[in-house]
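Table S2 (text version). Query chain:
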Amino acid sequence: MRIRKVFFITFLLLIAHGLYAQQISNFSYKDLNNSYQSFEELKGEKLTLIDFWASWCKPCKKAIKELNKISVDYQEKGVKVIGINCDGPRSVAKVKPLTKVLKIKYPILLDLDSELMKELNLSAFPSLIIVNDTGKILWIHEGFQSGDEVVIKNKIDKLLSL
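Corresponding structure-token output:
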């Protein structure tokens, strides 16, 4: 029985290490003005929060409200927020008007095929990842509920203090 526990814990640690040792590629997608923007152009000096969201996702809209605040509050600390909308080709026309309604203060890129989400093995909306200045994934958070903004801010503060 003890061997099973050790094996299971080791297995979980290997999985966790694999997730957090991932490096994000220098992706490039069109923005809302139909111009290509790359991760290298948009990333933060110290940390970048990348939010994967969809227009039909209610928790995404709640997260965006909080990410707007984080974007403003942490900008001078070297932290940037990038939104990646994963609406498909059929509903992409809703994205630009929705960003105006939500008053999004950070760049939004369009990944119509959810390629980057698939590459990172993310399966929920919203999904938030935090990467460092070299693109190493430091933290992944899937979903959003009231109070998660505190968890996110605490994680950013902790990562900035390292």
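Notes on Table S2: The two ends are 38 Å apart (CA to CA). The longest strand covers residues 47-53.
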